[in-house]
Design brief:
alpha+beta; four-stranded antiparallel beta sheet; five-stranded antiparallel beta sheet; 1 helix
Length: about 220
Protein backbone atom coordinates (compact mmCIF):
# COMPACT_ATOMS: atom_id res chain seq x y z
CA UNK A 1 0.00 0.00 0.00
CA UNK A 2 1.43 3.38 -1.12
CA UNK A 3 2.18 5.98 1.45
CA UNK A 4 -0.10 9.04 1.39
CA UNK A 5 2.97 11.29 1.48
CA UNK A 6 4.01 10.10 -1.99
CA UNK A 7 0.73 11.21 -3.67
CA UNK A 8 1.02 14.41 -5.79
CA UNK A 9 -0.27 17.50 -4.07
CA UNK A 10 -3.42 19.10 -5.51
CA UNK A 11 -2.63 22.06 -7.86
CA UNK A 12 -4.05 25.44 -6.77
CA UNK A 13 -5.06 28.48 -8.97
CA UNK A 14 -4.32 32.22 -8.72
CA UNK A 15 -5.56 34.10 -5.76
CA UNK A 16 -7.65 37.24 -6.25
CA UNK A 17 -4.73 39.42 -5.19
CA UNK A 18 -2.41 37.82 -7.74
CA UNK A 19 -5.05 38.17 -10.46
CA UNK A 20 -5.58 41.88 -9.71
CA UNK A 21 -1.83 42.48 -9.66
CA UNK A 22 -1.43 40.79 -13.05
CA UNK A 23 -4.29 42.82 -14.52
CA UNK A 24 -2.76 46.04 -13.19
CA UNK A 25 0.63 45.23 -14.73
CA UNK A 26 -0.98 44.34 -18.07
CA UNK A 27 -3.04 47.54 -18.14
CA UNK A 28 0.07 49.59 -17.33
CA UNK A 29 1.92 48.05 -20.29
CA UNK A 30 -1.07 48.74 -22.59
CA UNK A 31 -1.33 52.37 -21.42
CA UNK A 32 2.40 52.93 -21.97
CA UNK A 33 2.19 51.37 -25.45
CA UNK A 34 -0.80 53.53 -26.37
CA UNK A 35 0.95 56.64 -25.06
CA UNK A 36 4.05 55.87 -27.13
CA UNK A 37 1.91 55.24 -30.22
CA UNK A 38 0.04 58.52 -29.71
CA UNK A 39 3.33 60.41 -29.34
CA UNK A 40 4.69 58.83 -32.53
CA UNK A 41 1.52 59.69 -34.45
CA UNK A 42 1.61 63.29 -33.22
CA UNK A 43 5.27 63.59 -34.14
CA UNK A 44 4.62 62.19 -37.62
CA UNK A 45 1.71 64.62 -38.07
CA UNK A 46 3.91 67.53 -36.96
CA UNK A 47 6.67 66.55 -39.37
CA UNK A 48 4.21 66.29 -42.26
CA UNK A 49 2.77 69.71 -41.36
CA UNK A 50 6.29 71.19 -41.27
CA UNK A 51 7.11 69.68 -44.65
CA UNK A 52 3.89 71.05 -46.14
CA UNK A 53 4.54 74.50 -44.65
CA UNK A 54 8.11 74.57 -45.99
CA UNK A 55 6.94 73.41 -49.42
CA UNK A 56 4.15 76.01 -49.57
CA UNK A 57 6.53 78.80 -48.53
CA UNK A 58 9.08 77.75 -51.14
CA UNK A 59 6.37 77.64 -53.83
CA UNK A 60 5.18 81.16 -52.97
CA UNK A 61 8.76 82.46 -53.01
CA UNK A 62 9.35 80.86 -56.43
CA UNK A 63 6.17 82.50 -57.81
CA UNK A 64 7.39 85.92 -56.68
CA UNK A 65 10.86 85.16 -58.03
CA UNK A 66 9.47 84.39 -61.51
CA UNK A 67 7.51 87.64 -61.53
CA UNK A 68 10.57 89.60 -60.47
CA UNK A 69 12.63 87.97 -63.22
CA UNK A 70 10.13 89.36 -65.77
CA UNK A 71 10.14 92.90 -64.36
CA UNK A 72 10.58 95.44 -67.13
CA UNK A 73 9.71 92.99 -69.93
CA UNK A 74 8.89 95.04 -73.03
CA UNK A 75 9.12 98.30 -71.07
CA UNK A 76 10.80 100.71 -73.53
CA UNK A 77 14.27 101.96 -72.66
CA UNK A 78 14.23 105.39 -71.07
CA UNK A 79 10.71 104.95 -69.70
CA UNK A 80 9.94 107.12 -66.69
CA UNK A 81 9.59 105.53 -63.28
CA UNK A 82 6.08 104.09 -63.61
CA UNK A 83 6.42 102.34 -60.24
CA UNK A 84 7.07 105.63 -58.37
CA UNK A 85 10.73 104.87 -57.71
CA UNK A 86 14.14 105.31 -59.30
CA UNK A 87 13.52 101.99 -61.02
CA UNK A 88 11.09 102.08 -63.99
CA UNK A 89 9.75 98.58 -63.27
CA UNK A 90 10.20 97.74 -59.57
CA UNK A 91 9.13 99.64 -56.47
CA UNK A 92 9.61 98.52 -52.87
CA UNK A 93 7.30 99.61 -50.06
CA UNK A 94 8.92 101.79 -47.41
CA UNK A 95 8.35 99.02 -44.85
CA UNK A 96 10.13 96.47 -47.04
CA UNK A 97 7.20 94.01 -46.88
CA UNK A 98 5.62 95.08 -50.17
CA UNK A 99 6.65 95.16 -53.80
CA UNK A 100 5.17 96.28 -57.11
CA UNK A 101 6.35 95.11 -60.53
CA UNK A 102 5.57 96.38 -64.02
CA UNK A 103 5.91 94.22 -67.15
CA UNK A 104 4.02 93.11 -70.23
CA UNK A 105 2.65 89.65 -69.49
CA UNK A 106 1.65 88.88 -73.10
CA UNK A 107 4.01 90.29 -75.73
CA UNK A 108 2.09 92.32 -78.32
CA UNK A 109 2.58 95.67 -79.96
CA UNK A 110 0.90 98.63 -78.33
CA UNK A 111 0.18 96.92 -74.99
CA UNK A 112 1.13 98.94 -71.93
CA UNK A 113 2.89 97.27 -68.99
CA UNK A 114 0.64 95.80 -66.31
CA UNK A 115 1.07 96.28 -62.59
CA UNK A 116 1.63 93.27 -60.36
CA UNK A 117 2.55 93.25 -56.71
CA UNK A 118 2.89 91.43 -53.40
CA UNK A 119 2.33 92.51 -49.81
CA UNK A 120 1.91 91.07 -46.31
CA UNK A 121 -1.37 91.85 -44.55
CA UNK A 122 -2.53 90.28 -41.27
CA UNK A 123 -0.43 87.16 -41.70
CA UNK A 124 -1.50 86.60 -45.33
CA UNK A 125 0.53 87.25 -48.48
CA UNK A 126 -1.61 89.04 -51.06
CA UNK A 127 -0.98 89.35 -54.79
CA UNK A 128 -2.14 92.29 -56.91
CA UNK A 129 -3.47 92.08 -60.45
CA UNK A 130 -3.85 95.48 -62.06
CA UNK A 131 -4.70 98.55 -60.01
CA UNK A 132 -5.92 97.77 -56.52
CA UNK A 133 -7.16 94.22 -57.13
CA UNK A 134 -5.66 92.07 -54.38
CA UNK A 135 -6.22 88.42 -53.64
CA UNK A 136 -4.73 86.01 -51.09
CA UNK A 137 -1.76 83.98 -52.26
CA UNK A 138 -1.09 82.12 -49.01
CA UNK A 139 -3.68 79.96 -47.23
CA UNK A 140 -4.68 81.48 -43.89
CA UNK A 141 -6.12 78.15 -42.72
CA UNK A 142 -2.74 76.40 -42.95
CA UNK A 143 -0.12 79.11 -42.29
CA UNK A 144 0.40 82.49 -40.69
CA UNK A 145 3.13 84.43 -42.46
CA UNK A 146 5.21 86.39 -39.96
CA UNK A 147 7.77 87.90 -42.32
CA UNK A 148 7.93 88.98 -45.94
CA UNK A 149 11.10 90.83 -46.83
CA UNK A 150 12.50 92.09 -50.11
CA UNK A 151 16.18 93.10 -50.12
CA UNK A 152 17.36 94.62 -53.41
CA UNK A 153 20.92 94.45 -54.68
CA UNK A 154 21.19 97.12 -57.39
CA UNK A 155 24.16 97.90 -59.58
CA UNK A 156 23.93 101.30 -61.28
CA UNK A 157 26.04 101.76 -64.42
CA UNK A 158 26.61 105.30 -65.70
CA UNK A 159 26.02 105.63 -69.46
CA UNK A 160 27.09 109.26 -69.96
CA UNK A 161 30.12 108.19 -71.99
CA UNK A 162 27.77 106.84 -74.66
CA UNK A 163 26.14 110.25 -75.18
CA UNK A 164 27.37 112.36 -78.08
CA UNK A 165 26.72 115.54 -76.09
CA UNK A 166 27.63 116.32 -72.48
CA UNK A 167 24.84 115.89 -69.96
CA UNK A 168 24.22 117.17 -66.47
CA UNK A 169 25.30 114.81 -63.69
CA UNK A 170 21.73 114.34 -62.43
CA UNK A 171 20.19 113.88 -65.87
CA UNK A 172 22.58 111.43 -67.52
CA UNK A 173 21.22 108.02 -68.53
CA UNK A 174 22.14 104.98 -66.47
CA UNK A 175 21.56 101.26 -66.51
CA UNK A 176 20.22 99.22 -63.60
CA UNK A 177 21.23 95.61 -63.00
CA UNK A 178 19.08 94.22 -60.20
CA UNK A 179 18.83 91.22 -57.96
CA UNK A 180 16.29 90.88 -55.15
CA UNK A 181 16.46 88.56 -52.16
CA UNK A 182 13.07 87.27 -51.02
CA UNK A 183 12.77 86.05 -47.44
CA UNK A 184 9.61 84.40 -46.09
CA UNK A 185 8.89 83.13 -42.59
CA UNK A 186 5.69 81.49 -41.38
CA UNK A 187 4.13 79.45 -38.61
CA UNK A 188 1.49 76.78 -38.94
CA UNK A 189 -1.96 78.30 -38.41
CA UNK A 190 -2.51 76.35 -35.18
CA UNK A 191 0.84 77.33 -33.62
CA UNK A 192 1.04 80.00 -30.94
CA UNK A 193 2.81 83.25 -31.91
CA UNK A 194 5.29 82.67 -29.07
CA UNK A 195 6.57 79.55 -30.85
CA UNK A 196 8.91 81.62 -33.01
CA UNK A 197 11.56 78.95 -32.86
CA UNK A 198 9.30 76.66 -34.89
CA UNK A 199 8.94 79.16 -37.76
CA UNK A 200 9.81 77.85 -41.22
CA UNK A 201 11.69 79.97 -43.75
CA UNK A 202 12.14 80.21 -47.49
CA UNK A 203 14.93 82.25 -49.08
CA UNK A 204 15.18 82.90 -52.83
CA UNK A 205 17.48 85.08 -54.94
CA UNK A 206 15.63 86.60 -57.91
CA UNK A 207 17.75 87.92 -60.80
CA UNK A 208 15.91 90.51 -62.89
CA UNK A 209 16.64 89.58 -66.50
CA UNK A 210 15.68 92.92 -68.07
CA UNK A 211 18.29 95.51 -67.19
CA UNK A 212 16.58 98.91 -67.07
CA UNK A 213 17.90 101.98 -68.87
CA UNK A 214 16.72 105.16 -67.17
CA UNK A 215 16.86 108.59 -68.75
CA UNK A 216 18.40 109.57 -72.06
CA UNK A 217 21.14 111.56 -73.71
CA UNK A 218 20.59 115.26 -74.49
CA UNK A 219 19.01 115.84 -77.87
Amino acid sequence: MASTSSLPQQRRGFTLVELMAGLAIGLSVVVLALGLLTFQLQDAHRQLADLRLTHDLQTIAEVMSRDLARAGHRVPAGTAAVADSADPAIALAASGDGLSIDYVATPASGIAPSRFGYRLRSGVIEMAFGAGHWQALSDATSMRVTRLEFTPDIRRIDLREFCSRPCDAGACPYQLQRQVRIRLQALAADQAPAASGAAREALVEARVRNDAVVGGCPG
